[in-house]
Amino acid sequence: MGAAPSKTFNPVQDLPSLKGKVVIVTGSSSGIGFASLQHLLRLGAKVYMAAPDEDRTKEALERVEKEGRELPGFGEVVWHELDLKDPRTAKTSAQKFMEKESKLDILINNAALISDLGNPLKNQDDVQYNMAINYLGPFVFTRTLLPLLESTAANGDDVRIINVGSDGHKDVSHLDYSSKEAWNHKFNWSILPTLSRYKYSKLAVHLWSNYLAKRLAAENSKVMALIVHPGAILSDGAIRSLKTLPFPSLWIRLLGTVMHPQEQGAFTTVYAACSPRDNPHIFNGSYICPPNVTVTQAPGALDEERQRQLYDFTEVLLKSIDV
């Protein structure tokens, strides 16, 4: 199940104040994203809860009020509409954000479709949701926000992009990212096709993140891109998936003995986002896993030819739909 989250790490005590910082956390109305948002608010940041579902967001905003508003120096939370299924809406969302804010210190691409419940749906561009939500939408959202991130860094602020990956990227054997057909691979031969589709999309996140980190370095950008793996976490999303199985309470109880609470699943994210730059684990292209340490990615993620293959086809696809 991988290494356990740090038992001694306490974000509020161990990380610097984020007062005056502006942060976006995608997919933060529940799960690890919500836990990340809570940690960042406790550090005093202004955090945008970027999520598509206003009803669930209202519940999450109420939960924020209940679970931390009394803390001194508590930050501000704002809902920002973001639907990653369609790259057009991802781009529009980023443009609307730039009309609201003149700076962005931290972008956390956390949102992901973990389980399609065995039914791989496609968006209007004929791309399966696992790739549309987990990779293509975040790619467009980040690309559109990059000028704002760059201008914030140029003013001397510490600016970071944190992409939530997965150690499951090491298990992917279907390594073609050169076509829509490849992206829509169903993994029907796999024991758990849904999980295989998720891992394939997360390898895409790693490939993109590594390509982005190198591009930023080549351009002498002051923006850093890092990847994190949360660990084996019993998140809100995982519990929703387990509730679709026979005897859900049994599964939740059993997995609760080997998986960790979602508050701890957010540790690597906030550690990567907020630790000082003189920390040896914090550098452009770093891959941080529990318990907050840098780990080497699988060869498939470090393959520069495959990174370029993914990037090139992504650009071809986006050009074909005028995004």
Automatic annotation (TrEMBL):
GO MF term set: oxidoreductase activity
Provenance organism: Laccaria amethystina LaAM-08-1
A Pfam family hit: adh_short
Name of this protein: NAD(P)-binding protein
PANTHER family: PHOSPHATIDYLINOSITOL-GLYCAN BIOSYNTHESIS CLASS F PROTEIN (PTHR43157:SF31), PHOSPHATIDYLINOSITOL-GLYCAN BIOSYNTHESIS CLASS F PROTEIN-RELATED (PTHR43157)
Oxidoreductase recorded as keyword: yes
Entry keyword set: Oxidoreductase
Gene3D superfamilies: NAD(P)-binding Rossmann-like Domain
InterPro entries in the record: NAD(P)-bd_dom_sf (IPR036291), SDR_fam (IPR002347)
